[in-house]
Write a sequence for this structure.
């Protein structure tokens, strides 16, 4: 049933994508009315393509003003390496192979998401959560040349292993996941909270010495994995700040080149978008609203460990991310919240939310994916 839901959702999304591709004008990535594979590999997909065929620069490129320019170090190797291997094996170019990898990973993620939800929900609710996952407003990314599908597959697997307390198997999953999308530090925090919670509840839920050592070790390993890519960039380029300087280049169009100061970017973004003091007020309100969301009964029913992940990832985004149109995509790892959205059993509600999500797909495609002149809404 999950595979059928996934297939039906991909048919809907593909139809929307082709409708938009048909009216797409010439742009930096494609000509007029591009085919599906070409249209699905615009924006950051080009950077992943560069990594797959050319690797990473040993010398960081500079702007005319001497600042670090946008470059491939912002894009981790997990996804492009998988695509590159299949390109070699199949003798096919980047675009169709990238789409195939994303589609296959999205199917795997949907199957695993059902298993994840079944650990905390009844089967009917878990299945509807899968429906929402497959038709979510950002679900077109699951069949584009982006790393999100592969990352969500790995993240869902990691969360499932955590809930099942299969700590040993988490080591290889975390290692690959942390080199696919930035996630190691957030997952390390979730694991740390898991260890503390299990320790405090050990009288009701036994926490053996072996499990303590394993769970603590995998938490430390996740933290190290989260720092591995910046360390690799440092070794390869000779600049200790190669990775962070590269990431900061993407926000320079908004606030110029600045140092990375944790927990300031959202407030800087709020002021840039809305001015003072409204920007500070809105961001503070969003932080409060997110905290209260984690306390809602429907979210509490997801269980402690999934809420630990949601809180940890939210804290990670608050610490390092500058809010702009890519924020929608960066929120995708919070997909366990769909398990809370899926809980109402009213048929009217469920049909309505599915239609709303599909409309959201079209809105996101128009706003963030389709290119219309000088576009300030990258996906």
């Amino acid at each position: 049933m999950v595979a059928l839901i996934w297939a039906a959702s991909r048919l809907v999304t593909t139809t929307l994508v082709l409708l938009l591709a048909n009216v797409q004008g010439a742009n930096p990535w494609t000509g007029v009315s591009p085919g599906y594979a070409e249209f699905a590999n615009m924006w950051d997909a080009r950077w992943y393509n560069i990594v797959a065929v050319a690797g990473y620069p040993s010398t960081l490129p500079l702007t005319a003003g001497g600042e670090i320019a946008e470059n491939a170090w912002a894009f981790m190797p997990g996804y492009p390496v998988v695509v590159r291997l299949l390109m070699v094996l199949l003798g096919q170019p980047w675009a169709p192979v990238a789409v195939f990898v994303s589609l296959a990973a999205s199917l795997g993620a949907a199957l695993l998401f059902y298993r994840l939800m079944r650990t905390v929900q009844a089967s009917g609710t878990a299945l509807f959560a899968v429906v929402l996952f497959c038709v979510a407003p950002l679900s077109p990314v699951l069949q584009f040349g982006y790393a999100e599908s592969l990352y969500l597959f790995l993240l869902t697997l990691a969360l499932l292993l955590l809930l099942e307390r299969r700590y040993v198997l988490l080591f290889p999953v975390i290692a690959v996941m942390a080199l696919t999308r930035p996630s190691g530090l957030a997952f390390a925090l979730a694991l740390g909270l898991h260890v503390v919670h299990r320790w405090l509840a050990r009288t009701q839920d036994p926490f053996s010495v072996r499990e303590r050592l394993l769970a603590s070790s995998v938490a430390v390993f996740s933290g190290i994995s989260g720092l591995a890519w910046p360390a690799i960039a440092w070794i390869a380029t000779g600049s200790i700040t190669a990775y962070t300087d590269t990431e900061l280049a993407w926000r320079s169009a908004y606030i110029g080149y600045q140092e990375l100061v944790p927990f300031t970017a959202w407030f800087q973004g709020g002021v840039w978008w809305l001015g003072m003091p409204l920007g500070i007020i809105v961001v503070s309100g969003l932080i409060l609203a997110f905290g209260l969301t984690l306390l809602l009964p429907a979210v509490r029913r997801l269980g402690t460990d999934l809420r630990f992940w949601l809180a940890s990832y939210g804290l990670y985004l608050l610490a390092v991310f500058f809010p702009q149109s890519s924020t929608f995509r960066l929120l995708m790892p919070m997909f366990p919240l769909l398990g809370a959205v899926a809980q109402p059993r009213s048929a009217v509600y469920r049909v309505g939310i599915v239609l709303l999500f599909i409309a959201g797909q079209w809105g996101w495609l128009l706003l963030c994916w389709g290119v219309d002149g000088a576009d300030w809404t990258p996906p």
